[in-house]
Amino acid sequence: MNLTIFGSGRWASFLAWYAAASGHGVLICGREGSASFESLRAARRNEWLALPETVRYTTDPAEAWAHADTLLVSISAQQLRAFCEALRKTLPALQTGAAAGKTLVLCMKGLEDPTGLRLTQVVGETLGDTVQTAVWVGPGHPQDFMAGVPNCMLIDSGDAELTRALADSLAGPLIRFYYGEDLIGAEVGAAAKNVVGIAAGMLDGLGMDALKGVLMARGAREISRLVGALGGSQLTVYGVCHLGDYQATLFSPYSHNRAYGECIVRGEDYPYLAEGAATARSLLRLSERTGVELPICQAVARTIAREKPPREILTDLFIRSTKAEFYV
Questions:
Q1: 0.85 exceeded by the pTM?
Q2: Has 109 been annotated as catalytic?
Q3: N or C terminus of the chain with fewer C-beta within 10 Å?
Q4: Torsions phi, psi of 45, nearest 5?
Q5: Contact at 8 Å (CB) between 299 and 314?
Q6: Is 50 helix (H, G, I), strand (E, B) or coil?
Q7: Does the pLDDT at position 268 exceed 80?
């Protein structure tokens, strides 16, 4: 089938490579004036991979929209609302509600700041029900995939038939897809693992990495309670969207969120996007709405805001009084 990729960063370029290698027709749509897009179009490669000649490029949203019924979106989570609003203004089909048959697959992980909305909710607010929406989440770095290391990922849409159709059509030798059955859990779990990844990087930067085991146990439990309060299944958090993504996020040298956390506690600048920073703030808003305590997310947000020295915040987090609800 034909696929359109919106975005030109690390994950977007891998999606284009993966789709082309799987035999799909690929069109990458980038922003006019984007340095990363212009570089990718000119060289047909970046530091991670080389794209085949079959991949096409455009900056015209109308051309990108017409190219495919399945459109993969891989941009910053905080840019999604503006992206959807721009699409709506540009494309007549979205203005008239005549976009039936199109599916946006959101291939990024985050919650909108400051609203705390899940990304599918952002699409719903901006585009209404004119398009179907799905998410593609789970562990995986382009560097590992390009080295031939396979992984398992998850697709969910809230519609079992659409979920299965997407997972089956996008499957390939490098990726085994699971069919998601809990969109709330998939989105919140995938977004929150980046916050836990920042906490892991902070532990690395302070030489406290022996606490990562406790961080993983408490992190999964903390987020599972939140997902349950939001109407999702607590068990989803223990699948590939969250706990199953811990190795790639808490330990991998390729993890932007882990590296960002390490830089924060060392007082160093970090040049790349770390979605978990904005997500931490969004999760605290959900904590206020649901009454679910999120001590790890709170510690990460406080450290980023430099409320206290990082070591003091993290020490307080891990030596606080044990509470029975940690296990129930």
A1: yes
A2: no
A3: C
A4: -160, 165
A5: yes
A6: strand
A7: yes
